[in-house]
């Protein structure tokens, strides 16, 4: 009993969904059918051009909404989210001449610029042509299959309204087809959407180019900032101290005979200065590239980091591996940042760092027992870390519920394992 | 003393050789790469050797690895490791065998010639010479240790200086205390840490460091 009820329920839901699929996919064919009907009704052999043009315009206008609706339906029913992949329009800026630049041309007013940009973006977007193709393909695939239960119902209505036995039989057959097909008929929408509505290679390439352009800009900015920092540190630190050292030595040379005691005191000072500048240089070097990292590789460097950290940090690594130095460096500084965050912001007392590898690359997990609530805020440390990992197509996953614990996973794909 | 100097930078190597000879010791061999260092250590069995961590051909931790390899061949071979940076990780590896005769200092420790030669001689006698920064880190990372937490602040600093390798007398001078007071402190420290006291200076330092090394 319960089974048959649930069967009926799924048949009803399926029937409604099939209807929705038919409506969405048949919109454009309906426009064309109307155009053809109009042309026939007018009868004059030359007037077919006008309905044809209207149908073309209708198809162009309808293609994007149809695809949006189809995507929405599929996402709602099956959890398959298909990224739309439409190209974003760039900013429209006013030039010093007073004209507006929209990335393609200069326009006199902002409205014109926006309109022109919308047209051009729409025209050049490969997604537009994909949508058009889809409006042609969908009716003969998903549309036809989804209309089976509808056809069955139509046959049943038609058949039972006639007294003849054969038409009654046809009606019964239509009813069986409608009920049996309803739960399944709409399901063809998903594979069709995945196959024909997904991003084409050209679109994926365009997206990748955008991503890489942004990353390149980031990297360049970060690199320049880093070099400026190093320059400033050297300039204010070691360089200045060496000047002072040279000065002290020159003075000592003068004082050597006249005042040996003062000369000795100066020499002691000079030695202390040299020690201080060495300490500063050591810190600077550690910030650029920790010596343990180049001497021992990632795992021992992380071990050394764990030993120096104020937390009780445990490192577990099941592999001995040497990665490309840039990846090692990114992961090392990532772990350093996460451990510092755990101590400073999450007030953790313990951290567990594990370095493993899976089929695609290296995975570093950092887990602490702090109070959680960490997230990648724009301009924050974690967002920066995510950007640095993205350069290697790496990812950063953060799970940090309020109250803790925080778990962060850095994964970088690499072939050099 | 017969000493081997392994250091790839010419200026520093030359300077150290002259310094050592000025103090009346003999440099029997110098080495500039990892494999050379291992050869020299095994062939000459020096009373003590000075080894740089980073050396050719790979410019990684060649020197340290050569030194550890030589020490596993010749247990207790006294080594003074010099580096531009000190790491707890390396200190723990060096001290792991608990056999003594280990020094681990920053390169700039040669600025103070007297102290440097003193450290060198101490290592040759089987003692230890640890960079204060490493000792401080070792002690602070051991602070979660329950037994260590029982020490007073003064006892903590005495333990630190002991770990650097100083004698009671030297510790007394640093802390402006009498030698007798220091030996009282050391007895209390050993009591609190549960280490049986031993007359030998080196054994007690090693005991402390090995103790700290325990996870």
TrEMBL record, chain A:
Q: Which GO terms describe its cellular component?
A: membrane
A single MF term (Gene Ontology): protein dimerization activity
Q: Please indicate if the UniProt record lists ATP-binding as a keyword.
A: yes
Q: Which residues form the Histidine kinase/HSP90-like ATPase domain?
A: 326-416
Q: InterPro entries from the xrefs?
A: HATPase_C_sf, HATPase_dom, Sensor_HK_TwoCompSys, Sig_transdc_His_kin_sub3_dim/P
Membrane-spanning ranges? 12-42, 48-67, 134-159, 165-186
- Name of the protein in question: histidine kinase
The keyword Oxidoreductase belongs to this UniProt entry's keyword annotation = no
Annotated EC = 2.7.13.3
The protein's UniProt keywords, in alphabetical order, are: ATP-binding, Kinase, Membrane, Nucleotide-binding, Phosphoprotein, Transferase, Transmembrane, Transmembrane helix, Two-component regulatory system
Instruction: Describe the reaction catalysed, as an equation.
Output: ATP + protein L-histidine = ADP + protein N-phospho-L-histidine
First-level EC class: transferase
TrEMBL record, chain B:
What organism does the UniProt record list as the source?
Planotetraspora mira
Lineage start: Bacteria, Bacillati, Actinomycetota, Actinomycetes, Streptosporangiales
Looking up Pfam families in the UniProt record yields: GerE, Response_reg
Please identify the protein, giving its name as recorded.
DNA-binding response regulator
Which spans of this chain does the record mark as coiled coil?
Answer: none
Q: In the record, what terms sit under GO molecular function?
A: DNA binding
A GO BP term here is: phosphorelay signal transduction system
- Assigned keywords, A-Z: DNA-binding, Phosphoprotein, Transcription, Transcription regulation
Keyword Signal included in the entry's annotation:
no
Enumerate the spans annotated as HTH luxR-type domain.
Answer: 144-214
